[in-house]
Amino acid sequence: MNKFLLMASVATFALTMIACGDKPKETAATETVAPAAVDPEIAKGEEIFLQNCASCHGEKGAGDGAAAAALNPKPRNFKAPVSEWKNGNTVAAITKTLNEGIKGSPMVAYKHLGNDNIATVAKYVEYLGKN
């Protein structure tokens, strides 16, 4: 019985020391900050995108949203080469797409979002294409 208590005490002490030990500090090179957290406008664009666009384009803009399987043509993958973008991948081109939609596709106009929100989403979509 004494042997058992001694072993249990040693094990408890060891686990306590491990649990209370200092964790090594991460260096700046290994720290990552969510990109949306860096720029408030990108964060706002992400929020609007997730509410209005992610069901087709997917949360990361890969064209793999829940509704994508039923759509023809498939939603844009924002990582695709610019040659595959109907109107281009600049903020101005994305803004045009959001204002007008794309005729003959499931991409409808999103004018109801208003000019400021459209500009913010366009910047976020451009950001997705670059990151």
From TrEMBL:
Keyword Transmembrane: no
Top-level taxon: Bacteria
Domain Cytochrome c: 40-129
A GO MF label: electron transfer activity
Record flagged with keyword Signal: yes
Keywords: Heme, Iron, Metal-binding, Signal
A Pfam family matched in the record: Cytochrom_C
Signal peptide, first to last residue: 1-19
InterPro entries in alphabetical order: Cyt_c-like_dom, Cyt_c-like_dom_sf
Protein name: Cytochrome c
Source organism of the structure: Leptospira ognonensis
